[in-house]
Specification:
three-stranded antiparallel beta sheet, two-stranded parallel sheet
């Protein structure tokens, strides 16, 4: 008994966001980076590593600011922040309104650099 055409289409659409490399399953994020999928054992191990290598070594942080990625909004991170009384905030690095200002500043730096370079060539 096989899947219907509609079910096959739905499965293909869902599978587009995943990538297999050998036995490792990755999920493609919105910015096309690959996120390694973890099972429960690996996720608990990751939590232990965060606690042992970061929190226990340097102490709990007042605030953790991460992007809106799913891996930083997981149940594990929420539990970790609650256990160590840390505040977890999300931030977005891309700000459409600021993009024009950044591009204008970059162009100004380029112009200044080329003007300075032509000035130095005139002295030689």
């Amino acid at each position: 008994m096989g899947a219907s055409k509609i079910n096959n289409k739905t499965l293909r659409r869902l599978a587009i966001d995943f990538y297999f490399d050998g036995e490792t399953l990755y999920k493609k994020s919105s910015d096309r980076t690959l996120l390694r999928c973890l099972d429960d054992v690996e996720a608990k191990c990751g939590k232990k590593i965060l606690e042992r290598d970061l929190i226990c070594r340097y102490g709990p942080l007042e605030n953790i600011i991460t992007n809106n990625a799913q891996n930083f909004n997981s149940k594990m991170i929420i539990e970790l922040c609650a256990k160590w009384k840390m505040k977890h905030s999300n931030s977005s690095l891309y700000r459409l309104k600021m993009n024009g200002s950044v591009e204008a500043a970059k162009e100004n730096v380029k112009e200044d650099y080329f003007e300075y370079g032509s000035h130095l060539q005139g002295l030689a």
